[in-house]
Every structure is written in C-alpha cells, then in structure tokens.
Task: structure prediction
Amino acid sequence: MSESGTGGSSRGRTPRQGRTGGGGQSGGSGNSRSGSQRDAQGRERNRGPKRNFTENAPSQRTRRADPARLVAFEVLRAVAAEDAYANLVLPARIRHHGLDKRDAGFATELSYGALRGQGTYDAVLARCVDRPLDQLDPAILDALRIGAHQLLAMRVPAHAALDQTVGLARAVIGAGPSALINAVLRKVSAHTLDEWLELLLSDEQDETRVASIRYAHPEWIVRALRQSLVAHGRPVTEINELLEADNAAPVVNLVALPGLGSLDEALEGGATAGELVEGSALSSGGDLGRLASVREGSTRVQDVGSQLVARAMAAVDLAPAPEAQSAGEGGEKWLDLCAGPGGKAALLGALARQQGATLLANEPAPHRAKLVRQALAAVPHEVWHVRTGDGRDVGTEMAGTFDRVLVDVPCSGLGALRRRPESRWRRTPKDLADLGPLQRELLKSALDAVRPGGVVAYVTCSPHPAETTAVVTDALRKRDDLELLDAGAALDKVSLSGHLEAGHDLTAQLWPHVHRTDAMFLALIHKKP
Result:
C-alpha cells in the first residue's frame, strides 16, 4: 500500500489531546479512569465540580463527517453498491463537497489506498471482527477499510484516524454501528502493518497466498502475473516488484499533441519533463483543468505506455501502396478500430496531421463515440472522421483500405491495476475466457482492413498471454500473408532512451516495475505485399 498519505499529518486534528490510539485491543469503550472513584466500602466518591471528561465522553465525541473522509466513503460506497469507477466518481464528489487542494489530495489517497489495499485490510479486519466480514453491513465494512488505511498506511495520528472515522460513521451510518467501528479499529491500531503481516503470514506456506495478502492482489491475479512475466521473457522472481508497483500511487502523465499542444504551462506549474517519450510530462496532479492547453484538448492526460505504442505504429516504415503511387495520390489512411474514449485517437490524429495522413476512429457505443469526437476536437477536422459501428464489420466493409491500423482490444485491464484500484477485485478468470473470442474477431477485422504492405498494431493493457501472445499466434497460424515486425525495436525508435528492453520474440511488453508505465503489450503485424 502507498505510504504517501498526502496531507495526512494535518487531517483530522481534534481539539482534545492525550489519546494514544494504540491500545484497546479488547475493543472496549475506553472509559476507564486513571484513578479509582470509589472508597473502601465501594461507594462512589463525590467527584466535585472539576470533573474531567474522558476522551470518549459523549459531549467530547466527534459528531460530524469530515468532508475529505466523507468523499472517500462515498467513493467506496459507489464502487461497491453501484459498480462505479473510482476515477469517475472521485472528481465529482470532490467538487460537490468543495474540497481545497490539500483535502482533495487526502481524499484521493484515502479512496484509492483503501480500494487498492482492500485484500490486506480485509485479512486484518477478519482478525478483529467476531463474525465473517460478508455478514457486516457493506457500509460498515467500507468505513472499516477507510479507518484501516489511515491507521496502517498513512501518516495520520492514530487518535485522529479513530476519532474522525468513528465520527464519520456516527454521521452517515448511525450511533450503533459507530460503536462497533470504534471497537474494531482500536484492535487494528494495536499493531503496525508490518506487525499485522507477520501475524497473518507466520504460518502460511503457500507463496501465492503470502503474496496475495502482503500485496493486496487476488490469488488468481498473482498467478496470472507470474505466468505473464515468464511468457514475456522476464524472471518470475520479479513478481513482488510488479505487485508492489501496482500499489504505488501513479504519477499523472501528460502528452502535448504533436504540432498542436505545448507543455510550457504545465512545466511552469511544477510538472517535470518525461524521460521516456517526446512531448510528455509528469505531474503531481492537482486541478489540471486550470491549464489552458488541457481545457482546449491540445494537452491531454495519457499514460506514457499508451503514448509509446501509438507512436510506434505511426513510425513504422512502409512502402507506399502501389495503386496510390500509380494514381499519384499522397497521404496514408489510418484506422483506430477500438477508439473509445479517444486518448490514443487524439495522439494518432495529431501524428497523422504531421505525416499528411487521415484517421478513421471507430467506436461501437454512441456515448463513447461522442467522447472520441471530443478528444479529437483539438485536431483539425479535415484530418479525422469518427465512425459509430461494430469494429468486427470494418474488415468486411472496408477490406484492404488502410495503411496502418491500431486495434487496442477490450481486455481484462491487468496492466492498469495501479490506475484502476477497484478493478483487481472485480475481475475474475472468467473474464479472460469471455474476452478471448472478441479479441480474435477484432484482430481478424483489422488484418482484413489493412492493405497489403500495411501494418496492424495489436495492443492490450494486459500482459496476460491469453490476451497477448496467444491471440497473435492464433492469427499468424491461420494465414500465410502475415509476419511480425520487431515491436521492441519500434518502441526503442520512438523512446527518448532508445533502449527500453521491452522486446521478446518480436513482440513487446511494458511493465510498471520496469518502465513506470501501464503494462501495455504491442505486436506489429505486417501484411506482406
């Protein structure tokens, strides 16, 4: 789990002092007094007018929900109850509650941290609750996860984490549940995270189970990522580094659309120039909407891995189509087959403009097609067109039309777990099986749509071999007019370092723990002339 705890040292300061937050393993109310109030006969003595209330006296308890913690609670509730995406819910809740930059940072770390660390925190909470966790009211469990993250992985004083989380529960769940939450979190606060892990894992022999609890990943994902490392030529001993990288709070990546955008304003505001790809920058976050270039769409938020694979496809050297040469035509035709929500399409549109090409962006869902149009708005309209339709039909309807095709297929998203903290708990092994046929059909359509002599870039945000090398191998096995180009060399060509070490057997795989990118896979398939 992240240790950043942005703003955590100041959040939740309370007017009372002297609470340690580290005791109370029994989960009691904490109302014991430092001295006896009874005489030798057991009668309670008169305390006089200077009675000192204890820290948990009703008149001293926090009775309101701290806005930043309330935002985190609402995000977790939306994710659990409405199947919402945290990255979409969080900004709206921050705006709704009017959080300033500092509180917004705290709410962001608390939301994402509690979601990322859910598996570890649930293992701890299971030791502190007298019933199975699935028998708790879901709202209570979310409040406990928020409290556990503050206590075990943020720089929040224990007394503040306890007091403010219980206050949140009292305000939005009820007085009865808040007593349970207080008792459980006091037990949690009795140990540090390392101490809890030692207690939980001391007798555990299964390496997968150990990694699952220590790094908060479902066991099937731990096994899948081990398999993925080996499939792409990396040692399986890197698994803990990979899992740890998934739990690091990601830095916001920016891209200036080539020939259209500028990073000057972002760099002046504290962003740093990217080290992997031209025209990129790394930002600590904040309200990026304050940047004029972001508002107008010429500078965009996009992971560096996505930038690299789009640029790699655009940079492949191709011979002009014979019919275009004979007709004296210029300008290639590009296709983004699965364009929504439009991040790669915007970058491809800007690159197409520079190279005198045009881009067709295809997206089957009308609401996502609208997002693609919005993403492309900063690119001159004569360069691009958006098609709303099933990508599997394009290969038949527009066979042999395009010089370059990007097919970024729907996938499990195992390569973007650090940016989508809730997805690791939603995905199941069945998703891999269910997505496989669609991925193969979309790749077939792309291969039919590209002209002889053209190139198809098959891309996934997953390193799993079932979604990457297996799909590509199946396509190559069924046809004799295809060949793999060196995707690793193509990535090196467009990277600033020139030596990413991402290639293996002519395909390429980026990694969070190696390249500090999402785990993007790239295969470049050339249709022979």
Summary: The chain has three domains: 61-194, 250-301, 302-418+426-527. Residues 429-449 form the longest helix (21 residues). The CA atoms of residues 129 and 203 lie 21 Å apart.
